[in-house]
Every structure is written in structure tokens, then in C-alpha cells.
Amino acid sequence: MSWRAPENCDEINRRLLALEQDLLAVYRRTQEPGCLLTSPAFRFVCDWVDEDPYRGLLMSRIKHPHAFTPRHGINVMLIARAWMSWGHRLGDKRDKHALAALVHDIGHWSQPALLHVFGFFQKTEYRQMQQHARLPDAHSFPEGHPLADPDIRLWIEQHHEQPDGRGYPDGIRDPHVLSQVLRIVDCYEGLTTDRRFRTRYTPHQALRLMARWAGYKFNAGLFKNFQRFVGVFPPGTFVSLVDGRLGAVLPALEAQTCHVLVLTGEEGDPVAAARVVAVPAARVREEAPAWRQVALPEPWRTLRPDLMALPRS
């Protein structure tokens, strides 16, 4: 059995744009975070991801180059929700965790001087930035406010803590497992996004880099589970097979097997009709360089929403 691409991304793109506007209103303090839980866009996105977690992972390929924009929160929520829906059961904490993922960087917006730093932070700026994970005292929020919820507070305030004790803001060694989910996803999303001081890593490159950090920047077992979800070559990655064919990776529905949409023959000529083949992971030679990538045929264009020129406003 292989994964089937959604017919289009128009409706989910509209809902994500609406959720971005809702989140921006929260950042600007014209709307309370609790409104996000009752937002039609939030509910639609969560349900849409739950139906097929890999759709959420693929939509997170749409990026914005500035870290402190609503799109980063959107993508962290998409990936975290997808991962948890794929292999974990959070019960009545599912929506709370999705909300924590969405607003995990809300503290940045209480530091307006740092919002427009586009290069590396100076030492004093970096120390100030490390405080963004701290939330105001819970008693400063009215009863029922999301940022007064003990779980949401814990997940947000520990999302930069590390098992080696070198995280921030408190340097603890035993961060909560659902905070570590946010830590892993936040790191992955950040690495795969362009920054003013570096270009983005591909998802495959980001995973290889993160594998070196597992065990001290984040929980090694949890990261291994994340790797199982996204695969060695995450969905949408263009790859070269050992026989020379070019293909695009589909979501990994079977361990140790890659489902690849084959796009060219062994000599590099486009095939008349793309077809899905299941190949052992060892038969994937490498990630294909950008110059080898080709246009995806119908009905597979939605495998790469970031290449579809979807409206951004």
C-alpha cells in the first residue's frame, strides 16, 4: 500500500492563512490566546492533520525566512501535531499541546527590540533572547487562560531545555517529554528554513545534523521516533536511486522500505508516466541535487506544496 497525495491544497492553505492572522493578532495582543482554541481555522487544521499526518508534514515545507513570524509557529504546530497523531495518544492534551506548539515563541513578542535583528545576536542580545521561554506569572492571567494552564506553561517554558543541562532558561537536565517534542520539532523547522545568516538545510540534511545532537540537545529515543515518522529521506525529497533513476519520496508507510515516485529513466530521460515503486532503503543512493529536480506530474503536485505557488495572503 502506498500513500495517496491530496487532490489539492487550496482549502488547507486558506485555513492556514486565516490561522496565521489569528496568531498574529495574539502576538500583537489584540486577541487572547484562548481564542485560538475556538478558532474555526485551528479546529479545521488540527482535524485535517489528524486524518493524514503526512499532509501536515508536507504543508510545513512552506516557509517564511524570518524566525519571528506566525509561519514558524504554524509549522511547528503542523509537524508536532502530525508526529503525535502518527504514533502517540495524547488524549485530552492533544489540542493543548497543539496550542503550545503554535504559541511556543510568544515570549519573543515581549522583546520588540529583538524582533528585527536579522543577523547573529550580540552576547547581551542572546542572553536577553534566552528569556523568551519564560512566561509571566500564572496568577497574572485570568482563570481559564491558556497561559495559566500548568501543562501549556511547562511545555513552553522547557522547550529550549536539554538533557545535558546546557539548555535555557534554567539549564535543567530532565525536561518534560512533550517539551522535548517541541524542542525537536522547533529545531527541525528552524534548520529547514532560510535565515539571514545562513541558507536552509534540506530536511534530509537537517536530520543528519540533528542525529549528531541526539542524547544531549534532546532525548535520543524521542528523536529516533521522530526519524521513524519522517523517514531518512523525508516525504517530498528528490532522490537518486542506485540505478540512476530520479524520484520523489512518498511518506514512509513501511519500515526499511522507501516508496518512490519514479520520474526519470536510468539515463535521466523523463518517463512517459510516473509510477510508484517500493525499494529497499539501501537502493536510494543519495538526495538529488537541486539542478536534477523536475516538475511533479498530476496528481502528485501536492507532494510539494512549497513548489505550487500557493497564495501567501
From TrEMBL:
This is HD domain-containing protein. Residues 41-242 form the HD-GYP domain. It comes from Acanthopleuribacter pedis. InterPro entries: HD/PDEase_dom, HD_GYP_dom. CDD domains: HDc. Signal peptide: none annotated.
